[in-house]
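Review form for a predicted model. The reviewer records the input and the model, then writes brief findings.
Reviewer: anonymous (R2)
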Amino acid sequence: MTSTASALVEILDDLGVEYVFGYPGGRVIELLEALPDSDVDLVRPRDEREASVMAEMHGRLTGKPGVLAGQGPWIGSLGLIGQMEARLSSSPMVVLTEASERGEYSTLAPYQQARGDYGGFSLPKILDGVTKEWWFPRTPVETLRSTQLAFKHAVAGRPGPTAVILDGNAITEDVPDDPTPSAWDAREQTRTWNAAPTASDVAAAAEALQAAERPVIVAGNGVHAAEAYDELEAVADAYDCAVVTSYLGKSTYPETGERAAGVMGSFGHEGANRVVSEADALLVVGCRMNPMDTNWQAPEFIRPDEQTIIHADVDTRNAGWVYPADVGLIGDAAESLAALVDAASSDASNGWAKERAAEAREWFDVPECEDDSAPIKPQRAAKEIQAVVDEETIVTADSGNNRFWLLYYLQTPAVRTYFGSGGVGGMGWANPAAVSAALTTDRDVIAVAGDGGFSMTMNSVETAVEEGVAPTFVVLNDTSLGMVRQMQAEDGDIAGVEFHDTDFVKIADAFGAVGRRVADPGDLAGALEAGKAADVPHVIDVRIDREEDMAATLASSFYESVGGLHE
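Model under review:
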């Protein structure tokens, strides 16, 4: 007979899982003991938080579930960061964890016990609040079937995280030779099929776009999830649309393209926001229209009574969720966009989109982008990073001021060149995401974080060294929790926003990487180029001007109209 742990690893092998991101502990040890006999590699960072982000980013980039494994108490605490981001950013992910079950001792003043019995805590309840679905199998066959279903549900419809909680005999016993019910072939059991919109809805959407004089596409993260980049471009051309993106949709369309108008939202481009407000028809694709996207529903921004809204989403609940939609296109973004291309009667030409988009792109540049003063202007730093980002480079952006400076001033040259923590928006995301991206794609990767976010997960530099990948870690360093400090400055001092000046160069060296501090803007280009060309990770500590106020500089006029500072 075959052990359940070995059979579970066979499922991973059969499904083409390349990496398990995790940390040994509890009943997961049985699983990890079986990994060396497979083609699946274990990536073990320093804790479950970083592992969870790596798994989330792997799923986001590949469209296949990233696998997170670890002991239940820590998957349900540290490891929730990546799971929450996966849930809100629609990244497919499978969590293999356990309840730290102690057999006959589990109900006796339990230690680490996570089944939910008296005296312990309930891991199922914790995961129920984060994952799409979870399973708590009781037998070996249930463990195998639950794992298959976890992979299926992680990608079915709107992608997201799923979890299997391994427990007791369900992971330690052998699989019966002839079980009833059976466990089917993993590849057959996990098949999914893409949904597509109805012909009548496609016809109505095409008619509305064809008749529009100022049509605008709002491209969201759903375009990334479906890898519907060619289809997006084809629809924009067929209906002569300008293209803006949400924050999570940045780099779904090249921002150097002639139809690109930038990123909309509270700290998005003023030009992009104006383009959206001027539209007579909006095609929203794979974007739920969260408050930051919509400038907190500023009444003069998106106006359902005056604008035709066509909302394409894989989940029927999301179409028309925030604003009433005139037409809903329910299905995979690639299917919906391809159907719109087929339905176009002729290439439209309204004479508005390209000219208006060109005006909007002017907001990518300001004089500060060329400023030679020190400390370095964050706008200048963003432009220097842009200069080394080509079509084969990925930027991972953390939370805080740094991501908004990048959002605004880094003009992406191609699709899939920029990804940010914008679902739950946790600090510390960019570093492990960069390591995962380097492992997953074999492309050049640049992680950008503030000194606060970098410090949270700087152990990822060591993981990069161990795994033989070489991301460049850029720290936009203002020795503070900059966004909070600036937003609360008008109310006086606030506790907890100042950091002492950490020597990140020494930390990088200690991890086996290369560290460099850059205080002169003229030195930044060379440091970035050296980091990108190297075969070991580089940490570049960029000393930025802490008085350059992000919110005051970047907040859109629509956001200000509703009072601003909703963060």
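Findings: The chain has 25 helices and 20 strands.
Further findings: The longest strand covers residues 444-450.
Recommendation: see findings above.
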